[in-house]
Amino acid sequence: MNSDRSISERIVTVFGGTGFLGRRIVRRLLEKDFTVRAVSRHPDQVAARFSSDTRAPEAVRADILDPASVALAVAGSKTVVNAVSLYVEHGNRTFERVHVTAAADLAAASRNSSVEQFIHISGIGSDPRSESSYIRARGRGEQAVASTFPGVIIRPSVMTGPDDTFLTTLVRLIRVLPVYPLFGNGGTRLQPVYVGDVAEAIGHLIDRNGAGGSSIFEFGGPRVFTYEELVRDIARQLDVKIRPLPIPFEVWNVLARVAEFLPAVPLTRNQIDLMRHDNVAALDLPGLKELDIEPHNIDEVIRAIAQANK
Ligand SMILES: NC(=O)c1ccc[n+]([C@@H]2O[C@H](COP(=O)([O-])OP(=O)(O)OC[C@H]3O[C@@H](n4cnc5c(N)ncnc54)[C@H](OP(=O)(O)O)[C@@H]3O)[C@@H](O)[C@H]2O)c1
Predict the structure, then answer these.
(1) Whole-angstrom Cα distance, residue 72 to residue 163?
(2) Boundaries of each NAD(P)-binding domain copy (predicted)?
């Protein structure tokens, strides 16, 4: 067991520390008294994100695509977490560049800097052989990271929380649309997980300084829904009548292609690709239960989002 003093001297550097998941990881680690660096391309964003918190992390400017800034950011860290995301490609910021090459470069910089623990956030369904460039890059990224710095790979299902995009969009649309468009026949199975539970689990792994060597964790919530069941469940909670309407994936792909040109991208092709396959935690991989975490009921999260978006 670490003494309080050795914990506070343990530097954890979180790439993506301003993001939806990353800032929860940062908060959880600060609560546990670690010294935390939140890495961002815009360090002023770190101050803004944590302005109402009692403790703020150290803000570090780095771009995962810039090796010099990455080396400086990881120097002296005991643990490095990669929670960087890219959902839409722009110029040289491709899925391959960010999720494979840059993730492996970050792992290599961590190894060269004598970091003891590397935690890489990926996602359920990552597959190096997928036809989807996004899912393939996530799978290849896991392989590249594991062969560079064998550590912990975290695959969450879709994450939910008060400021998420997934459930918030569903709640808003279900309130206004009398006919609700489903992805395909709405039969894809999902296991939404509360983002705070994922951050808590990562906090546990850092606290325990590892998971006994290299390992893959899959984190899902307490209930598996088909997409249609989830839509109906939310409508019931909102006391709204809806008529679900199956829409073929080919139609969604065309819509996403157009949507990706909009300034605030409401729908992306990788989201459509992810919705083609079940997104449920594997029973033969460790998950929240193995870390003694009782996952939050998603109905509570839906109620909070519905309340906040009245
Ligand atoms: N959200 C979900 O439901 C979900 C589900 C499964 C898996 N995941 C995975 O979980 C991880 C975190 O996702 P999220 O939804 O929390 O992401 P997010 O909210 O979109 O945050 C993305 C983070 O990445 C940072 N970032 C982006 N490009 C960067 C770059 N070039 N250099 C340095 N930092 C960069 C951003 O920092 P700045 O903009 O401040 O630089 C931001 O902190 C990702 O790997 C994602 O694929 C997410």
Answers:
(1) 31
(2) 16-161
Q: Indicate the DSSP class of residue 184.
A: B
Q: What is the mean pLDDT of residues 290-298?
A: 96
**Could you tell which of 15, 82, 84 is best to mutate to test the pocket of ligand 1, judged by most ligand atoms within 8 Å of the CB?**
84
Q: Is 275 a pocket residue for ligand 1 (Cβ < 6 Å)? A: no
Output the residue whose Cα is nearest ligand 1's atom 8: 123
4-159+193-220+279-295: CATH number: 3.40.50.720
For residue 124, what are its two tokens?
């359920």
Residue-wise burial string across 126-143, b where 16 or more C-beta atoms lie within 10 A, e elsewhere:
beeebebbbbbbbbbbbe
**For 239-288, how does the pLDDT look when each residue is reduced to its tens digit (9 = 90+)?**
999 999 999 999 999 999 998 888 877 788 998 999 999 999 999 999 99
Model confidence at 4, pLDDT cuts 50, 70, 90, reads low
Ligand 1 atom nearest residue 84's Cα: 24
Q: How far away, in angstroms, is 33 Cα from ligand 1 center?
A: 24
Q: Ligand 1 mean position to 95 CA, how many Å? A: 12
Q: Are 125 and 191 in contact (CB under 8 A)?
A: no
Tokens of 20: 């939806």
pLDDT at residue 168 tops 60: yes
Amino acid at 104: A
Is 83 a pocket residue for ligand 1 (Cβ < 6 Å)?
yes
Residues 190-236: pLDDT tens digits? 999 999 999 999 999 999 875 556 699 999 999 999 999 999 999 99
218, β-bridge pairs: 155
